[in-house]
Write a structure and sequence with these properties.
The complex is a heterodimer of chains A (479) and B (260). Helix content of chain A is 74%, strand content 0%. Chain A is mainly alpha-helical and 479 residues long. By secondary structure, chain B is of the alpha+beta class. Chain B folds into two domains: 1-19 and 204-252, no CATH class; 22-197, 3-Layer(aba) Sandwich (Glutaredoxin). Chain B has helices at 2-20, 52-56, 74-88, 107-116, 133-140, 178-188, 223-251, and strands at residues 42-45, 48-51, 61-66, 95-100, 125-129, 145-147, 152-154, 158-162, 168-173, 208-211, 216-219. Classes of the chains: A mainly alpha (479), B alpha+beta (260). Chains A and B meet through helix 4, helix 7 and helix 8 of A and helix 7 of B. The complex binds protoporphyrin IX containing FE. Residues 25, 28-29, 31-32, 50-51, 53-54, 57-58, 61, 110-111, 367, 371, 374-375, 379, 417, 431-432, 454, 457 of chain A line the site of protoporphyrin IX containing FE (HEM).
């Protein structure tokens, strides 16, 4: 059972995340309007928005999953609200530092801050160290937090049980591992690994920055580390959302809980391994990388997506198909999220295939696929949890009130928005262009339409978020 | 044996010192000034006067700087270039423009030079002078220095690749092999050229080390950083595996046992 303090801190997290989410969507719409030539931002202004948008979105939807995991973990083991507060405080400090470095200091390298961009000072000089330190603060906070959550899991399950290995050898093992625990463990291990990579990356950045040129980094090594961290984190964040789905979807649909089976155990253990090497697909253009690495990148991209996605999609289809389901906003969001995840995953596999990547590399196809599995995937998984938990906080039953308009706007807005990225990507419109030259008219047209669709998505989000926040605030008044 | 090692170390230190002192070296670089436009200068050639753009707009150009009284690298440079181009037998269309950077050279000096190399009737080769040589060499980033005591220019052998838009797509310094020439031919035809910076000075950790002589790559220390996160995470998990039974014992009273 969640303690009151855990409820309060989770509530504070949800309000913080959703506030930042709204701001970041507005930044996104402004970027699309600029690309559509509908408004005029300075190039620096565009890249400042892009950097802040990317980092904020990745950050908030990673921590959103962690908030959900820790909250639901209280059903199985004791969890520490203090740990949660610690992470929240460091996150707020980190985000403030980050936004000052971008909005005041004008730092604008893109969210991947790929070496050596941070050292090509095209902004206030202090913005580079402030930006790097902001990441250090966030990284430390999240590292301690994720290790802490893993420890909480291990208070109840042995390491073998947490990975559900007993299900691989026995049909009916003595202790069963809930799928939620397995997926949370796998994702947390991945996140810990990413954050260690981020620490190494930051140490190398700091070493060069503070050594005044007497130590230089290898761009290839830095790029490998950056994508090892960045690509993996983005994927693990999604898996945290999937863990929430495994725990809540059957429950809110009035169906029996998902049972651990040998194939779910196998799929997620494999996913843990493959997702760690899939980042090599970001290095296809780095021809000095040995061919073997490129092949690992392609194969791992296939293998990472197939087991987890296929097993989860099938589980959800079997849950829904032919059964009487109690539909509510929670399970509708989960359900649409699975569809978004699958579409985005297919987009990713297409791009990760080397022969296609030659054409699609660094085109808008890339933001197309990751926006699909984020904006229409992980965001919806986490929102489903937020909606469910807000009702729990408010002590209210899920209303049967129809959300048809909200869901309609979200579907048209969300899928319309990503479709514009796909169309432009397929037409070879490059990503990360503040504005497009006349030759890329299709880039401009799709950008304007995307801004329109994104506004519909924003309206739907505002409607959902308004209700969530109202209910979350109530927790602060309860004793 | 120790004397030998000591001598070797001192020699290495001296060598690295010499190559790493930026003042001691000389400023020509193959990476500098790429994709800059070559200057528009008039050329006096055996077949009349033309402007440089008229040449490169027809076919891409390889531009070689020499002077006819050179007692150093110019002759071996031209000979090497001629032999390599012959052995390469490239079917691509391009011109080789040989321009003297010595204002004392006349067109007849250059014609004689062409004759000496048996290139006087070769359409692919053009020998020329220009009244605006400093404009041309500056735009190519080539800075010969007159040494009055030797009555010679102090200079390197530079071959500049120019595409049909007049952009410098590649530079080759020194006597280069057929492979490098092939790269230049591809680059002046605007083919995508792969390039990656070699590990630089003060770069302690690189993923691969590359031997430019053999062209071989081998894994280097930097790669360890890619496996380090996995090693540290596994160590953390192994530590957890040993420690967690204690946590479970402690928390056994607080939380319900795992479901059977
Ligand atoms: C409707 C909501 C959203 C809008 C309008 C939006 C818009 C944009 C735009 C216009 C770009 C720049 C694309 C380019 O030209 O390369 C972008 C990049 C990005 N977006 Fe979004 N986005 C939205 C939601 C999200 C979500 C939910 C996430 C993640 C969870 C996300 C993560 C990112 C990232 C990581 C980048 C890359 C930034 C970079 O290249 O540095 N976005 N977004």
């Amino acid at each position: 059972m969640a303690s009151l303090s855990l409820k309060k801190v989770s509530s504070a997290w949800i309000i913080t995340i959703l506030t930042l989410f709204i701001c970041a969507i507005v930044f996104g719409i402004l970027m699309r309007l600029n690309q559509g030539n509908d408004i005029k931002l300075s190039p620096n202004g565009f890249y400042t928005l892009m950097t802040t948008h990317g980092l904020t979105m990745i950050g908030i939807w990673t921590v959103a999953g962690m908030v959900g995991i820790q909250y639901l973990l209280s059903r199985y083991t004791t969890v520490s609200a203090k740990l949660n507060v610690f992470a929240l405080v460091l996150t707020i400090i980190g985000v403030i530092m980050l936004w000052i470095s971008t909005f005041v200091g004008n730092f604008h390298t893109g969210w991947t801050f790929l070496y050596p961009f941070p050292f090509y000072i095209a902004w206030a000089k202090w913005a580079t160290p402030l930006f790097l330190w902001s990441l250090a603060v966030l990284g430390i906070g999240w590292f301690v937090w994720s290790v802490g959550i893993l420890v909480e899991i291990l208070k109840k399950y042995s390491l073998k049980q947490a990975f559900a290995w007993q299900h691989l050898s026995k049909k009916d093992p003595e202790v069963t591992t809930p799928p939620f625990i397995l997926i949370a463990t796998v994702s947390l291990v991945g996140i810990i690994l990413c954050l260690i990579t981020a620490v190494i990356l930051l140490i190398l950045f700091f070493a060069e920055y503070y050594s005044n040129g007497s130590f230089k980094n290898d761009p290839l090594l830095m790029k490998n580390l950056t994508y090892f961290f960045g690509h993996t984190l983005a994927n693990e964040a999604l898996y945290l959302g999937v863990a929430l789905l495994y725990e809540l979807l059957p429950e809110v649909s009035g169906r029996p809980k998902f049972k651990m089976t040998w194939y779910i155990a196998l799929a997620w253990n494999f996913t843990m391994i493959f997702v760690l090497t899939a980042f090599f697909h970001h290095m296809y253009m780095d021809f000095v990388q040995p061919l073997g690495f490129q092949m690992v990148g392609q194969l791992a991209s296939y293998f990472a997506s197939i087991p987890a996605a296929a097993v989860s999609a099938l589980s959800v289809i079997f849950l829904v198909y032919g059964n009487k389901i109690k539909w509510s906003l929670t399970n509708i969001l989960f359900f649409i999220g699975v569809i978004g995840w699958m579409i985005g995953g297919i987009g990713a596999v297409i791009d990760a295939t080397i022969s296609n990547n030659i054409v699609l590399h660094n085109t808008l196809w890339v933001p197309a696929h990751f926006h699909t599995y984020n904006a229409m995937g992980n965001v919806l998984f986490c929102l489903a949890f937020f909606w469910w938990v807000a009702n729990e906080f408010a002590g209210s039953q899920e209303t049967t009130k129809s959300h048809k308009i909200t869901i309609g706007l979200m579907l048209i807005g969300g899928f319309g928005f990503v479709l514009m990225f796909y169309i432009a990507g397929a037409a070879s419109v490059p990503r990360r262009f503040a504005f497009y030259p006349n030759e890329l008219q299709i880039g401009m047209t799709t950008a304007t339409w995307a801004a329109f669709f994104a506004t519909l998505y924003l309206i739907a989000m505002l409607a959902i978020i308004w209700e969530i926040v109202r209910k979350c605030i109530r927790v602060f008044y309860s004793s | 044996m120790y004397k030998g090692i000591l001598f070797f170390l001192i020699a290495c230190l001296g060598f690295t010192d010499a190559i790493s002192d930026p003042g001691a070296g000389y400023n020509l670089s193959e990476e500098k000034g790429l994709y800059a436009k070559i200057a528009d200068v008039p050329l006096n050639t055996g077949s009349g006067n033309i402007r440089l753009p008229e040449l490169y707009q027809q076919t891409p150009v390889m531009l070689a700087f020499i002077f006819t009284r050179c007692t150093g690298i110019c002759n071996p440079f031209l000979l090497h270039l001629k032999d390599n181009l012959e052995s390469l037998g490239s079917k691509e269309k391009f011109k080789v423009l040989v321009v003297s950077f010595d204002p004392a050279d006349s067109l007849s000096d250059l014609n004689k030079l062409a004759y000496r190399f048996g290139l006087q009737d070769n359409d692919q080769w053009i020998f020329a002078t220009t009244p605006q040589i400093s404009k041309l060499v500056n735009s190519a980033g080539f800075y010969p220095v007159w040494d009055s005591s030797r009555q010679q220019f102090d200079h390197d052998a530079l071959l500049v690749g120019i595409d049909k838009e007049g952009l410098i797509t590649k530079k080759l310094i020194g006597l280069r092999d057929v492979k490098s020439l092939n790269w230049m031919i591809r680059s002046i035809h605007d083919e995508f050229m792969l390039s990656y910076p070699l590990p630089r000075e003060n770069m302690l950790f690189s993923c691969f080390s590359y031997d430019p002589v053999t062209g071989k790559k081998s894994p280097s220390f930097g790669l360890l950083f890619l496996v380090l996160p996995a090693i540290l995470t596994i160590m953390l998990l192994v530590w957890f595996a040993y420690q967690s039974p204690k946590w479970r014992l402690k928390s056994a009273q607080e939380i319900p046992p795992a479901k059977n």
